[in-house]
Amino acid sequence: MIMIAIIDYNAGNLTSVKRALDYLAIDSVISSDPQVLLSAERLIFPGVGHAASAMATLRERGLDLVLKEAFAAGTPILGICLGTQIILSRSEEGDTTCLGIIEGTVPRFKLTDPALKIPHMGWDAVRLLRPHPVLRDVKPGDEFYFVHSFYPQPVDPAAVVGVGNYEIEFPAIIGKDNLIALQFHPEKSGGVGLSILKNFSTWDGKPC
Amino acid sequence: MLSKRIIACLDVRDGNLAKSIKFVDTKDIGDPVAAAKRYYEEGIDELVFYDITASSDKRNIMIDTVSAVAAQVFIPFSVGGGLRTVEDCTAVRLAGAEKINVNTAAVANPAIISLAAALLGSQAVVLSMDVLRTGITNTTPSGYEIVTHGGRTRTGLDALAWAKQGESLGAGELVVNSIDADGTREGYEITLTRMIAEGVRIPVIASGGGGKPEHLYEVLTEGKADAALVASILHYKEYTVRAIKEELRGRGIKVRMV
């Protein structure tokens, strides 16, 4: 039985997630094989890059259907960065139709302060709006590593688990049922980031 | 609001840590992987490795170092030095570096910036500039010139113009390294850093001259830098990362504490 499968769809450095799991001694594989992915106990859906090309590759490999099926089956799923964004219905990046597992959009930051740079890149804090088993070791003031120009905006406010602040408040962690998704990179966020991966590896998929 | 980043710079030669003083006298001082791990545990925000290996047949030692760091350090880090082609950049990324860092190669062939940005994304491309104070001349109206090969070669390029060109070619960040301040520990070049930071819309990392927390405070406020590079004060254990950050935080700078 595969404990964690990392979904391979040519989107950025999947190996950095794998390295973090290896360090934590958590078994994982990187795969684009639908059968392997659907038989895994848990899925990680990472990603760096452009929404349109990511969606094109997902569809080409049939992985859009795999994600929807795994979500419906109750498999715990962890989204990271671009993976988090394309879980929503639509992205402003390339005006792309996305997976729609959580209803919502992915707007680009529109900032008025010229001193604030886009992408929002670096370490920033996240305020949790509600507790979540995967986030149980996150303390107020903990910072995470972000690199993004777009952010996830679910329609249902209950899908927002944590928020960041970059002139505006934006959803930094979203979730629904057996899915939890992070705009930041837990695999590059030091000890507190690793705690999220570790807690995900034993999460049963229940949101609280 | 983003925290100001403290970045440790590790010069690596033949797999060993070295620290250059004004770029000429280099002295090996230890194992880069062990140093990286220590700074990571103390709360460094990012790491930069510059490969200063002279002979090209020893380049794969650097890839081994990068892999070893990536297996135990879970923060972003970049690798520079000797990256001449897009293939070189891809190799260090695959070994686990978040970002690649180009300097001399970009001056010789600016297209490497746009090629790397197209392939890896701008966020993964750092343009490092070695800058010499020249005073205002016809070719260097900013008063600063880009130099290469560790400061030995003048290029005639104006520092501010090159920074803007780098940004427009797709660099995601700039390291502004003052040759005049490097290794002096007398403080960063505030005027230079501020001029570049005000001239571009990408993050600027100040480099060269950091000798005590006060210097970081100056360059992160007056110098308008988004991040500051430190080297010898950590390598010689004069300060811990935590001590630097505590002092900065005490003076009202937002920094990440672990």
The overall pLDDT average of chain A reads 96
- Find the count of extended strands of chain A (DSSP E, 2+ residues): 14
**CATH A-level architecture of chain A:** 3-Layer(aba) Sandwich
> Structural class of the helices, strands and pairings of chain A?
alpha/beta
Number of domains of chain A: 1
Total of DSSP H or I helical runs spanning 4+ residues of chain B: 10
CATH class of chain B, named: Alpha Beta
CATH architecture of chain B: Alpha-Beta Barrel
Oligomer: heterodimer
Determine the mean pLDDT of chain B: 92
- Bin the helical content of chain A: 10-25%
| CATH level 4 superfamily of chain B | Aldolase class I
Q: How many domains, in number, for the residues of chain B? A: 1
The helix content of chain B is 25-40%
Count of discrete alpha- or pi-helical segments spanning 4 or more residues of chain A: 6
Going by helix content, strand content and strand pairing, the class of chain B is alpha/beta
Brief descriptors of the model:
heterodimer, A: alpha/beta, Rossmann fold, 8-stranded mixed beta sheet, 4-stranded mixed beta sheet, 6 helices, B: 258 residues, alpha/beta, TIM Barrel, 8-stranded parallel barrel, 10 helices, globular
Model description:
By secondary structure, chain A is an alpha/beta fold. Chain A is globular, with a radius of gyration of 16 Å. Chain A has one domain (4-200): Rossmann fold, CATH 3.40.50.880. The two termini of chain A are 25 Å apart. In chain A, 25% of the residues lie in helices and 28% in strands. In chain A, helix 1 links the parallel strand 1 (4-7) and strand 2 (28-31). With 258 residues, chain B is α/β, with parallel strands linked by helices. Chain B has one domain (5-250): TIM Barrel (Alpha-Beta Barrel), CATH 3.20.20. An eight-stranded parallel barrel of chain B has the order 1-4-5-6-7-10-11-12, surrounded by seven helices. In chain B, strand 5, helix 3 and strand 6 form a beta-alpha-beta unit. In chain B, helix 1 (32-42) runs parallel beside helix 2. The longest helix of chain B is centred in the first third of the chain and has 12 residues, at 59-70. Chain B starts with a strand and ends in an 8-residue tail after the last helix. The A-B interface holds A 12-13, 15-16, 19-20, 22-23, 48-49, 114, 117, 119-124, 141, 143, 145, 147, 165-166, 187-194 and B 1-3, 5, 40, 43, 45, 70-72, 74-76, 93-94, 96, 98, 121, 123, 172-173, 201-203, 226-227, 256-258.
